[in-house]
Amino acid sequence: MIRIMAIGLALAGMSAVRFTATARAEDGPLKVVVHINFSETGTQGAGLRSVANILKDDPQAKVEVVCHAAGIGLVEKARTEHAEAIQALIKQGATVVACENTMRQKSIRKEDLLPGVGTVPSGAVEVVRKQHKDGYAYFKP
């Protein structure tokens, strides 16, 4: 039984290492999807600072910030406390998107979003797709 558990842990570890390696191709930029589905503005700010640090370390990094559920307020003009930080990250090349499902549920229009913020049909699906199909590493502040 212990041997089976050890083999399972070893295989899980190899899988995690392989996945992490896909986030940065040997000659390509780092690729990271940042998952924001919480409303705590302090944690949102910390997450945005982490994105800025990623872009500072690797200016060619492909970073997508996905906001859905309670995290949608981060990109709403009327609610966010981080408009300047979002705009700075967009200028540095980060992509910031809002979930259309959440927008529909909360009656948020595209015009209600900060300038430069895009939309995706489903925030949850976008996070999974970026990891599974596009080889992005996952980061959640």
Question: Main traits of this protein?
Answer:
5 helices; Hypothetical Protein Ychn, Chain: A; alpha/beta; single chain; 141 residues; five-stranded parallel beta sheet
Structural write-up:
- With 141 residues, this protein is an alpha/beta fold.
- The chain has one domain: 3-Layer(aba) Sandwich (Hypothetical Protein Ychn, Chain: A), CATH 3.40.1260.
- Helix content is 45%, strand content 16%.
- It contains five helices and five strands; from the N terminus they run αβαβαβαβαβ.
Helix/strand layout:
Layout: H1 2-22, E1 31-36, H2 41-57, E2 62-67, H3 83-91, E3 95-99, H4 100-105, E4 118-120, H5 123-132, E5 137-139
Parallel strand pairs: 1-2, 1-5, 2-3, 3-4
DSSP summary: helix tally: 5
Mean pLDDT: 87
Shape: globular
Alpha carbon gyration radius: 17 Å
State the total count of DSSP E strands.
Answer: 5
Task: Quickly describe the structure.
The chain is of the alpha/beta class and 141 residues long. It is built from five helices and five strands, in the order αβαβαβαβαβ.
